[in-house]
Design goal:
Two copies of one chain form a homodimer. Chain A is mostly helical. Chain A folds into two domains: about 80 residues, Arc Repressor Mutant, subunit A (Orthogonal Bundle); about 80 residues. In chain A, strands 1-2 form a two-stranded antiparallel ribbon. The N and C termini of chain A lie far apart (about 60 Å). At the A-B interface, helix 1, helix 4, helix 5, helix 6 and helix 7 of A face helix 1, helix 4, helix 5, helix 6 and helix 7 of B. Chain A binds a DNA duplex through helix 2 and helix 3. Chains A, B: Pfam families: PadR, Vir_act_alpha_C. Chains A, B: This is PadR family transcriptional regulator.
DNA sequence: TGTGGCATGTAAATGGTTACATGATTGA
DNA sequence: TCAATCATGTAACCATTTACATGCCACA
């Protein structure tokens, strides 16, 4: 079976939900996948086109006179099979996330302790606000999708985000403490 | 002051260590920055060239007759200033790490519990081996660079890697447990 | 004599973002 | 009537990887 890129699989997956248009897909990503995946329109529309070309989806265009075109994409059998096949494949390798704060910290002997502490504090604040966002999303999933088959898996990914974020916040605090000690 | 891309700053930073050639830079990245940054030769050599063009570094080429060229790059005053200036700037936004396992998990209702559990277990193993690698690097830093000014900051970034990895491993275990419960 | 590490580089392809362009619909 | 949101799309640009090309040197 042919291999596609990650963006293609992400969109195949989203098309299994009630989101069927490029615009809806973008919304869905921004609302639900935002903590571990993002895609721009510049990828979405071309990818949707290629899905149709590859026979992974059909498109239904509602072009009433005068009105704007709206495209609805629906997975074909082949599309579903392709998605399932990808889901079954093991994850090749751990992502090496490029982390700007770590890169800066790595070379921070060229900075004052104060400056470095400021950097870490700003970072910590962002992590905290991200954590708040996760909590809010979690509430909304629990509230709206109690019976949803998907909900369990969505909560799993959120749980990951929460745990890792908390762990990073703890690291910030710890590291700030060590810097403080050095300063004395 | 002009803005450069992250790769440029990473290389500026590495040029402050004893690594002065494209080859040495690549080694350094693979050994020390590997858990949060990686760069290929396809970026390194062109970037080094552009550093010289921009006046951020000087290049000294040892081209003895018959022998192969070896290039040594040294930061200029302007290069150091540019690096310091970047270090002082706050990190714009948290990285959204694209995480393939989370993407798969998100759509895992199309998979059997067994398949999903297998996926998570494989992932957990990779995390565990990564954690082992971190411990080994830590040992080697502590052993070789006890007095090094840089060592503290290097250990900070490693500590981040270790914490976040452990947190992810815990999440794997927890999530596997929840799946197990569902299966009963 | 051949293998692995040292050493430098480029071209093509891929992946992705940003900025732009266009226009309809909805509700205040 | 104005602003926000709905809706689709493209072109240029930027970043990055991969595959390729070359050749030295040390040492077994």
């Amino acid at each position: 079976m042919k291999n596609y890129n990650h963006t293609t699989y992400a969109i195949l997956g989203i098309l299994t939900t009630e989101c069927k248009s490029g615009y809806a897909i973008k919304k869905f990503i921004d609302n639900s996948l935002n903590h571990f995946w993002k895609i721009s329109y510049g990828q979405i529309y071309p990818t949707l086109k290629s899905l149709v070309q590859e026979g992974l989806a059909d498109v239904y265009t509602s072009s009433s006179e005068g009105k704007q075109d709206k495209n609805e994409y629906h997975l074909t059998e082949k599309g579903i099979d392709t998605l399932k096949e990808w889901l079954g494949q093991p994850v090749e390798q751990l992502p090496i996330e490029r982390n700007e704060i770590l890169l800066k910290l790595f070379f921070s002997r060229f900075q004052s302790y104060d400056q470095t502490a400021l950097l870490l504090n700003q970072y910590k604040q962002r992590l905290e606000s991200r954590h708040q966002t996760y909590l809010a999303i979690e509430q909304s999933i629990v509230y709206h999708n109690k019976d949803d088959e998907d909900a369990m898996y969505w909560l799993f990914t959120l749980d990951y985000g929460k745990s890792v974020t908390i762990s990073a916040i703890e690291w910030c605090k710890r590291t700030l403490g060590k810097l403080q000690k050095k300063e004395d």
